Amino acid sequence: DAKTTQPNSMESNEEEPVHLPCNHSTISGTDYIHWYRQLPSQGPEYVIHGLTSNVNNRMASLAIAEDRKSSTLILHRATLRDAAVYYCILRGGLSYNTDKLIFGTGTRLQVFP
Amino acid sequence: DTGVSQDPRHKITKRGQNVTFRCDPISEHNRLYWYRQTLGQGPEFLTYFQNEAQLEKSRLLSDRFSAERPKGSFSTLEIQRTEQGDSAMYLCASSLVATGQETQYFGPGTRLLVL
């Protein structure tokens, strides 16, 4: 399975943008890039995913490098509720016959008032 | 609330006892997953079901662990002869699979402590 590398922790102030990086240099052509986050004492929740093009949704934006070897999750205005562990995960297509999520240790984001 | 629910939320047991956890997925979701998470680590995949069929089991799932999903609805995860190393958060997730990139919706987890 292709692996991802993320910083252990990052800090931000409330209402500032946050850029969470992820390196995935061994990504294959069919791997999608997914982001999940885990708030304290909760199960993980989906944030966003993409394949090649940048993606936006109500929670965040995903910027994918042209060579796809890295990506960045962008929180446009961090709030205290965004304090969580953020996981960058690669997922193969349905032809792999499994869609289990392979989590790393993620990036712990602290947000200060 | 129509999310994934898990019961119990917390379980304390003595080494050697058997425990069983239940997961109720989102209605009509055809896939159900079990993960285990220890402190400071990301969740680790244990097993998953498509409807009632168990399609994959991780090597982490020793023969003391068994999971079922009768009738393709709720699922149970049983741990026999618990060991202290089984202490962890057990997470359940469900999804409706069509293309392989569907969101997995997680429950709040069952925290197990083995004394």
Proportion of strand residues of chain A? 35-45%
Quote the average pLDDT of chain B: 94
Tally of helical runs of chain A: 0
CA gyration radius of chain B, whole angstroms:
13 Å
What is the chains' assembly state? heterodimer
Average pLDDT, all residues of chain A:
92
Count of DSSP strands of chain B = 11
| Percent in helix of chain B | under 10%
Sheet with the most strands, sense and barrel status of chain B: 7 strands, mixed
Which residue ranges of chain B are poorly predicted, with pLDDT under 50 across at least 5 consecutive positions? none
Overall 3D shape of chain B: globular
* SSE run of chain B: EEEEEEEEEEE
SSE-based structural type of chain B:
mainly beta
- What is the beta-strand fraction of chain B? over 45%
Description:
- The complex is a heterodimer of chains A (113) and B (115).
- By secondary structure, chain A is an all-beta fold.
- Chain A is built from no helices and nine strands.
- In chain A, strand 5 and strand 6 form a beta hairpin.
- Chain A has strands spanning 9-13, 18-23, 32-38, 45-50, 55-56, 61-64, 70-75, 84-91, 107-112.
- In chain A, 0% of the residues lie in helices and 44% in strands.
- In chain A, the strands form two sheets. In chain A, strands 1-9-8-3-4 form a five-stranded mixed beta sheet, with no helix packed on it.
- Chain B is mainly beta.
- In chain B, strands 2, 4, 5, 6, 9, 10 and 11 form a seven-stranded mixed beta sheet that branches.
- In chain B, strand 5 and strand 6 form a beta hairpin.
